[in-house]
Amino acid sequence: MEQNETAPEQDQAAQAEGAPKPDAAPSPDEMLKTAELKAQEHHDAWLRAKAETENMRRRAQEDVSKAQKFAVERFAGEMLSVKDSLEAGLAIETATVESFKNGMELTLKQLASVFEKFNIKEINPVGEKFDAHKHQAIGMLESEQEANTVVSVMQKGYQLHDRVLRPALVMVAKGKE
Do 90 and 61 contact (CB within 8 A), yes or no? Predict the structure, then answer.
């Protein structure tokens, strides 16, 4: 019986010292303060995440802008040598037709080398089936070839990797009647 009498005395002593009862629920004020602290922590974390997201979006936008602005920088640098060759050929005052032709051929080789370096390929479809994705028919001709076959190329086309930059202008064979 003494244990029962001492337990209430200990509870009263603990309450007098300000310690909560172990099985008692926290007061509404304590719950409110705890909830406000958690809400503030979550709000701060949300603000940091929002700022970080905004910074990432801004950096990505700057990267895209720079990529668009300087996308052709390497290509342009390579093309400068072709321009220099053309200007050097025009600067020669005593050029003969033969030397002029040789200079143009060398410059064309330079240009072809630049195209190859950047995966720009010619579309020259003589004898191939007409493909509307790569060719643009400008007329039809009577021919011994099968119908819808490219008979002649008026202007070569070009493609960059697998994308057509300019379709080839072609004449297509009519079907035999």
Answer: no
CATH number of 120-177, picked from 3.40.50.300, 2.30.22.10, 3.40.120.10, 3.30.1300.10: 2.30.22.10
Extended strands (E) in the chain: 120-123, 135-141, 150-155, 157-160, 163-166, 168-173
This prediction has a pTM of 0.61
Separation between Cα atoms, residue 62 and residue 127, nearest integer Å:
48
Which of the listed ranges 39-48, 96-105, 145-154 does the model predict with the highest average pLDDT?
Answer: 39-48
Under 8 Å between Cβ of 103 and 139: no
Q: For residue 1, is pLDDT > 50?
A: no
